[in-house]
Amino acid sequence: MNGARISVTTEDGKPVAEATTDAQGRWDVQVEDPGRYKVTLDVGSLPQNAEARGGTNVRTLSVYEGNCSTALFPLQPKGGGQDQGQQSDDNSAFWTRAAQLTFEGFNLGLIIALAALGLSLIYGTTGLTNFAHGELVTLGAILAYGFNAGMGLGLIPAAAIAVIVAGLLGYLQDRFFWGQLRRRGTGIIAMMIISIGVALFLRYLFLIVFGGQTEAYTQYNAQPGVQVGPISAAPKNFVAMGIELVVLIIVGIALLRTRTGKAARAVADNPALAASSGINVDRVVRIIWTSGGAIAALAGIMLGLSQNLKYTMGQEMLLLIFAGVTLGGLGTAFGALIGSLVVGLFIQVSTLWVPPELKSVGALAVLIIVLLVRPQGILGRRERIG
Q1: Model's pTM, two decimal places?
Q2: Domain that holds residue 68
Q3: Where is this region: Disordered (predicted)?
Q4: Which CATH number do you get for residue 280?
């Protein structure tokens, strides 16, 4: 939207600066000091047939030193009084936006799928619903940031090292913590409650180490968009989606074709029978924890590429991960992939009709509907109880 006026003030109303949007609807204001600022869209500068979606034209932002903050003002057409040409333009804009949101939904769905894959494999082999899995996602992003911004490595080698370190930490988790609890006969419910405590511990450890501010990687931040048909995205998004697809395909082939993958599926199916068949169940579970930690870290790095890093990023994503796993079927790796793609598409495309602030509510709706209609999920199997 070209020519819309934006004004920025301090939280107590002191004027800071004004800006006007360009032909792509972009604007930029430089502020001297970090703090909280109010950003106001002048609705009088909008075309007569447009209005701010949700009825609000004010955003309050926290600006940190050395970082930029973003304020978005989604617009929607006003109802009534449109001629045929205007309706045609609106329809064209609607389908263009729908295509863009579908692409973004696939991007988000693939990130969720990476995180959900590890959670689903851990549940399938141990029966543990790990509420600390979101923190494994955050861990990967923070490790990559530490190697990238703290040690000066390029993002690609920093990401590779972060994935390896996160995989090692996943192994150590099971070797010295979860494995010890299993050997002591700790029940699944008790372990699930313990995982909530682990999540809280890690979250506030990240707050102490990383801080409460928002950060970004030192590379691949401000990339110009590439137009592919109706879709516009930064090159890093296409590369990230390619990496995510390759990793998911490799993991899928490993589960189907390798001895370890077949052993993991056997343990997920019946641990006692797998053990009696000569499979080292503890070894398989450790491999799953190692792989799950590494894949979750990769998901965190990819999430950090598409948005800024913060210590709660995994916690905020956890609901979407559980929604994807539940929709696909608990304990099924391929179900987690399908369910995550559906969730990603659903919450992004839903912003065509609902405010963006409420889009994650769709994940909760998916959970409720699946549990009511098909509790075992898309690829899950019914189980006999009693």
Answers
A1: 0.75
A2: 4-73
A3: 1-23
A4: 1.10.3470
pLDDT (average), residues 327-349? 80
Q: Rounded to an integer, what is the distance from CA 370 to the centroid of its chain?
A: 21
Residues paired with residue 5 on neighbouring β-strands, in sequence order: 20
Q: Which of 65, 239, 219 is nearest to 152 (CA)?
A: 219
CA nearest to 51, candidates 12, 78, 70: 78
Condensed to tens digits (0 to 9), the pLDDT of residues 30-63 reads 887 777 788 888 877 777 777 776 567 787 777 7
CA distances from 168 to 21, 109, 116, 178 (A): 48, 26, 19, 14
242: Cβ contacts below 8 Å, ≥ 6 apart: none
Structure token digits, residue 9:
């003030």
- ∠ Cα 11 43 361 (to 5°): 70
**Nearest by Cα to 264 from 296, 291, 294, 299:** 291
Residues 172 and 268 in one domain: yes
Query: Crossing angle, helix 84-126 and helix 281-306, to 10 degrees?
Result: 160
Average pLDDT of span 321-337? 79
Q: In this structure, are 125 and 32 located in the same domain?
A: no
Token pair of 48, please? 């007569």
